[in-house]
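Alpha-glucosidase, pasting as requested.
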Amino acid sequence: TTMPPLMVRSKELFLRSAEYAVFTPVMRTHEGNKPEANHQYYSDEDTLFQFARLTQIHSRLLPYTRSLIQELSTAGTPVQRPLFLDFEEDAGSWDIMYQYLYGPDLLVAPVIHKGQETQTVYLPGGGSGWVYFWEVTEEAVVGPVTVTVPVPMGYPAVYYRKDSPWQPLFQEIAQEFGLATEGTSVL
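Structure tokens follow.
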């Protein structure tokens, strides 16, 4: 019998990696060397729709991303960085391995396991708290605290600082692309 390929990109893997890429400076995809064996953005209508939504969110974040690139070029501060870089005094932020800050204001905990339905997120202390990215709300969770949130496809666990100067942009994105448009809530 023939062994199935070990490295095949499923629809779930493709879309989860696209979710992650939204919160990076460069969002792109490749067909790979065996496009027929791997799921592509054009493989079905649902994938095309979901990928288009994610690329639109990435585009809407462009002013924020540009400010991060400017900070990188002038101060050398990484765009994507470990929590402890901004929360040195928060001992809990030192052991976090699978989430990161996208600039100083967005905390991202990407989905990395197949079939994952919830994500546990560490929210560092300090400031006025953290707001769930996918809802238009003024409610903030004050850290340090660990929370668990649902992660339906297209909605990775992302929080922003309540006192962020970018809050209006983040709320506009939540209004247009967030869970309210799907009729679901996690708060």
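Note for the archive: Confidence is low (pLDDT under 50) at residues 183-187.
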